[in-house]
Description:
Elements: H1 2-17, E1 34-39, H2 45-56, E2 60-61, E3 68-80, E4 89-103, E5 109-124, H3 128-155, H4 159-189
Parallel strand pairs: 1-2, 1-3
Antiparallel strand pairs: 3-4, 4-5
Helix pairs in contact: 2-3
Pfam families: LptE (PF04390)
Region (Disordered): 167-201
Subunit structure: Component of the lipopolysaccharide transport and assembly complex. Interacts with LptD.
Amino acid sequence: MIKRNLLVMGLAVLLSACGFQLRGTGTNELAIKELDVSARDAYSETVTQLRQVLENSGVHVYTGATYKLFLANEKENQRNLSYASAGRASDIELSTVLSFEIQGRDHLPLMGDNIQVQKIVSHDGNNLVGSDSEIIQVRKEMRRELVQRMVLRLSMITPEQLETLQQQADNKAKADADALKAAKEYEDNTPKQSPVEVPVE
């Protein structure tokens, strides 16, 4: 027994040294170490959970960070997939779409996308209370999955990528500003035509 325990411990140390982790035993390491996280609905459960998960993953979440994750919109939908006769359950599709944008310096948009989660539940017309409770529970699970997918998306982004996108956004903003300035100067330097006077007979 002692030898087997020592063998197991030895294997665990060896695997750990190789960087191996059992699923669920470690936190998700993100290359982004600082992030400002906000949402159109500042008190939504999604943004609250997301902040907690990011902080648990080693990200310093605070207002004023160089890069900002903005949850622009979270939309929940529900539609019937089948209509059941009396005494039978019908299938309902629940979906949630989260629209997000990552902003850089001067609030310039760097990237944005949508994340969608879908689930199908059975709705029992003879047990409305139980069916509604199940839908509420499934919505909570969908929110957790939405947060996990958002963190996974962030884990694929590096500070170097964000800096490259920031430079591109800066160049575009400067080009747009120069074009607007040139158009205004052209308008200011173009002689204005005097209104045509109609002779009075």
